[in-house]
Write a structure and sequence with these properties.
- Helices cover 28% and strands 10% of the residues.
- The protein has 223 residues and is an alpha/beta fold.
- The chain has one domain.
- The strands form two sheets. The protein has a four-stranded parallel β-sheet with strand order 5-2-1-6, with no helix packed on it. A two-stranded antiparallel ribbon has the order 3-4.
- A hairpin with a 4-residue loop joins strand 3 and strand 4.
- Helix 2 runs antiparallel to helix 3 and helix 3 packs antiparallel against helix 4.
- The longest helix is centred in the middle third of the chain and has 16 residues.
- It comes from Algoriphagus aquaeductus.
Length: 223
């Protein structure tokens, strides 16, 4: 009997463990989603320390002539503090910059008009916490990918047994080829002749909509 939504059944994940501890990134990269592919539960730790120059407050999108990094400014330059205490600095008007950048990058993408309102609503809000913003955006990404993943917030910071801990491994300073999760699988992008790998999942969602899940599966790094 044919699958009613014509989607390929989800394969077993690369790792036998289906509970994964992961950092809460801002509009995560394709490497992030390749790393959690097949997981049934993601464990998130609000008391983990905020790391500067990380994916916790930045993402990458493809404009007409370059890859642009979008960064969320945070209040103060204090020593490392728990993610749940990191406050967003709205005095810098970053929301308009990010929304304008996303519209410039993907306004002509096939699925932009369908998916953009989900992100626009969250990005136009004024939640004080970076943690809350990232959590809301990750929930939307998983919804649009149609991944039935449970998100569990671990308040005490203790990692349970039988959990694959990927925290700290997906980082802008560490090329994705150094990890064992994602390999570049070209797909049609809005701009450029040469494929630009490992952008924000926005790139894949806006360009390919319901095919995003299948394309992500093809980008899983083979053992």
């Amino acid at each position: 009997m044919k699958n009613p939504d014509h989607r390929t059944p989800t394969p077993e994940p690369l790792f036998p463990l289906k509970r994964i501890a992961i950092d809460l990134h801002y509009l995560p990269t394709l490497e992030f989603f390749a790393a959690i592919y097949g997981a049934e539960e993601l464990l998130l730790f609000p008391d983990d320390l905020y790391q500067r120059q990380s994916f916790l407050n930045r993402t990458r999108i493809l404009l007409a002539n370059k890859v642009e990094t979008l960064s969320i400014p945070i209040q103060g330059r204090r020593p490392k503090i728990p993610m749940r205490l990191v406050k967003i600095d709205y005095s810098q008007k970053w929301q308009a910059i990010h929304l304008r950048g996303i519209q410039s990058a993907y306004g002509k993408a096939p699925f932009f008009e369908y998916f953009f309102p989900y992100f626009q609503k969250v990005l136009e809000g004024h939640g004080a916490s970076l943690w809350e913003l990232n959590y809301s955006l990750l929930t939307i990404c998983l919804k649009l990918l149609r991944w039935p993943v449970n998100l569990t917030v671990v308040e005490n910071g203790q990692i349970p047994e039988e959990v694959l801990d990927l925290r700290g491994l997906i980082d802008p300073k560490r090329h994705f080829s150094q990890n064992g999760y994602y390999q570049a699988h070209p797909y049609v992008q809005v701009f450029g002749v040469d494929f630009e790998p490992n952008l924000s999942v926005l790139d894949l969602l806006f360009c390919h909509g319901p095919q995003a899940e299948e394309l992500l599966k093809q980008s899983l790094k083979k053992p």
